[in-house]
Amino acid sequence: LEDNDYVDVRGPSGLLQYAGRGRFHIQPKKSAPAVERSGVRKLGLIAGGTGITPMLQLIEAIIKDPQDHTQMWMLYANQSENDIILRSRLEEIRDQCPDSFSLSYTLDRPP
Asked: What does pTM read for this prediction?
């Protein structure tokens, strides 16, 4: 990041919806209307344990659209290597889409 750059970070609040091709609908509060954020070209994803499932839905939506050129980087945290769920699917996506999806793991108890 450069000086004056910013990073939007959202938790799993259900207030963020992917609209395709780098567009998100974001509600700052549940009672507020959604605001569209477009032009997202690079997306960093951080997941832990079972929190991978909504991330995988997002990843699948992006790679399914050949016109979506959003680049994704994911850090997936788990307790141990045996706890990595959906590993084969994530690595399949990484291998099939190396220009758009990068995958890293972190473990609390590495082998």
From this structure: 0.85
